[in-house]
């Protein structure tokens, strides 16, 4: 059985994937077909209808026209947590299960969110930049604009899934009080974890000193942090986004930083990536120029929160294991389109 990897993020011939499946099955008939640095449209047309499975990273978009080419495909594994680049409903109607890998970089993203916050509130990057620019004048503790005590801050978490919970526990270890908003978590979650629960995003924004985003990108969350949300924000709040860029409206963030409602922001993700695609946005221009009003208040990283050599190995192994489980035994791990999944290709909707 052939497994197409149309946007492989590695250069070897799927060594980790083959090893993972071999360890699972004692020698599987799965053949992994990776394409490296190739545009989706440039893959030979015959590759799509001939594969039984697809492992997709984040550069392909599997919408209805592309899904209909997958004549034999039974499962798509999104090599990552987010799955907004796959049309779940159409895939389900075609009998194609869509699964993700939600647990490969949980600790890395949580660490990154806390690291970005600490960079701002302990001023490490600002101090370094000030000293580099002026060895004498930069040697002063007041050169970082956002330094404050972390103990006692209200750490607001939007989305208390695996990563949100891991981040919240780290914040709690630093002495912060955790407040979360997640309407999909059952009653009592707050009691079990020793956190406080906000009944709305507005309530969380009004009380949190820090807001850390950990939601998937869905129609519900797209643009969730908009002008209305920032108008509700506690003055001096810091925003951290290691989730998805389009959750935050960048124009609204610019206004909130300019008018002082927000003290700072740390963004691992932005609405359009890479950052060259948004180089002309006023916020990015001001950040690059280090205009006085924003210097030391905005921190960017290149959608890197997930990354560590260990997490990439985990991602590749878990993606291969998920494909093997689906095609080998019909077991669906982390299926994200079960609600639309037609049984026409042999899937049980309760598997």
Automatic annotation (TrEMBL):
Its EC number is 1.1.1.95. Residues 114-305 form the D-isomer specific 2-hydroxyacid dehydrogenase NAD-binding domain. GO terms for molecular function: phosphoglycerate dehydrogenase activity. Residues 48-337 form the D-isomer specific 2-hydroxyacid dehydrogenase catalytic domain. PROSITE patterns: D_2_HYDROXYACID_DH_3. The keyword Oxidoreductase applies. InterPro entries: CtBP, CTBP_dehydrogenase, D-isomer_2_OHA_DH_cat_dom, D-isomer_DH_CS, D-isomer_DH_NAD-bd, NAD(P)-bd_dom_sf. It holds the Pfam family 2-Hacid_dh. It comes from the Bacteria. Gene3D superfamilies: NAD(P)-binding Rossmann-like Domain. Keywords: Oxidoreductase. Belongs to the D-isomer specific 2-hydroxyacid dehydrogenase family. This is D-3-phosphoglycerate dehydrogenase/C-terminal binding protein.
């Amino acid at each position: 059985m052939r497994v197409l990897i149309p946007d492989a993020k590695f250069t070897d011939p799927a060594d980790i994937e083959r090893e993972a499946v071999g360890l699972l099955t004692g020698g599987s008939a799965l053949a992994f077909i990776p394409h490296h640095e190739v545009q989706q449209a440039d893959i030979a047309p015959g590759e799509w209808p001939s594969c039984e499975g697809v492992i997709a990273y984040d550069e392909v978009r599997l919408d209805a026209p592309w899904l209909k080419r997958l004549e034999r495909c039974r499962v798509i594994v999104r090599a990552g947590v987010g799955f907004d680049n796959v049309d779940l409903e159409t895939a389900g109607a075609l009998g194609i299960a869509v699964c993700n890998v939600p647990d490969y970089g949980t600790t890395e993203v949580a660490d990154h969110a806390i690291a970005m916050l600490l960079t701002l509130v302990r001023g490490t990057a600002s101090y370094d930049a000030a000293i580099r620019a002026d060895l004498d004048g930069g040697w002063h503790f007041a050169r970082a604009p956002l330094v404050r005590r972390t103990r006692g801050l209200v750490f607001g978490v939007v989305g208390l899934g695996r990563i949100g919970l891991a981040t919240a526990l780290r914040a709690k270890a630093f002495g912060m009080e955790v407040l979360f908003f997640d309407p999909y978590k059952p009653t009592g979650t707050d009691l079990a974890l020793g956190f406080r629960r906000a009944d709305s995003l507005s309530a969380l924004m009004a009380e949190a000193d820090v807001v850390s985003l950990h939601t998937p990108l869905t129609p519900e969350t797209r643009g969730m942090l908009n002008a209305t949300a920032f108008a509700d924000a506690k003055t001096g709040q810091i925003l951290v986004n290691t989730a998805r860029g389009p959750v935050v409206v960048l124009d609204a963030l610019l206004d909130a930083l300019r008018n002082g409602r927000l003290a700072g922001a740390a963004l691992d993700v932005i609405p359009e990536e890479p950052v060259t695609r948004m180089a002309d946005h006023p916020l990015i221009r001001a950040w690059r120029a280090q205009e006085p009003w924003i210097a030391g208040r905005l921190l960017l990283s290149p959608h890197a929160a997930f990354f560590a050599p260990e997490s990439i190995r985990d991602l590749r192994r878990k993606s291969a294991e998920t494909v093997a489980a689906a095609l080998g035994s019909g077991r669906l791990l982390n299926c994200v389109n079960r609600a639309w999944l037609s049984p026409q290709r042999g899937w049980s909707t309760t598997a």
